[in-house]
Task: structure prediction
Amino acid sequence: MIKGARKFPLLKVSDCRHTLPLTRAPAWEWAGQHVVSRDIYDMNNAHSAQGRGRSASTVAGGWRGIPGRLSFGPSCTMRTAASLHGTGSERTSHVSWIHQVPVEEATGLLKSEYDKAIRRAGRLWHIVQVMSPNPRVLKTSMEFYGAIMFGPSALSRVQRELLGTVVSSELGCHY
Amino acid sequence: MGDWRAAGLSAADAALCEFAAKLTHDQRAMSRADLDVLRRHGFDDGAIHDAAQVIGYFNYITRMADALGIEPETFIQPWGS
Result:
């Protein structure tokens, strides 16, 4: 048991800045926040046969919040989204080494993808915005992410988040 | 790295994580035996497929972040700070 495991994630991913304490942000909101807390892990296993968590995994939870018994209230999401919305200047400042289309300049398919991302997460994450040079690829990438991480699966949500956290950790992803 | 090894995961979930670590670091060394390990822990082909997809996705998306120099959002602090 790692220190502070009840409050902090089961998996400590020190090199991946996008792992947030559950007390600060919803766990599954977006790719950046891949955190599995001890509480959630134990809760999931306690309610599922053989610790597999299958029952929770097959509930179509959508993008916001956690399906089934893995409960993070929408209030957490809303509060976080509001507090994180940032300033206009933040949204237009550089977020990567390539140019990305600012929110206010987006049109067509890109605007539609930006709008969806903001509705979903309350803000435009850099990983979304960086794909703005190719809106069709952005759309496809987001759909793939949604399907594999949030869609019906033989793996539980916790197991999928575990895998994401381990990979990010093993690779020492700076983002 | 490897905190998950000490995190008290179930044997099945630890096997999943081991699979993820190997595929991430040493994909050319993957073999049928790796899948047999997962099967012994109760994962069927559907679960194994989805695991590979998730692992592949995170290998992809982290490379996107690193290749293009995506800045972490300013409100996010590294662990331990």
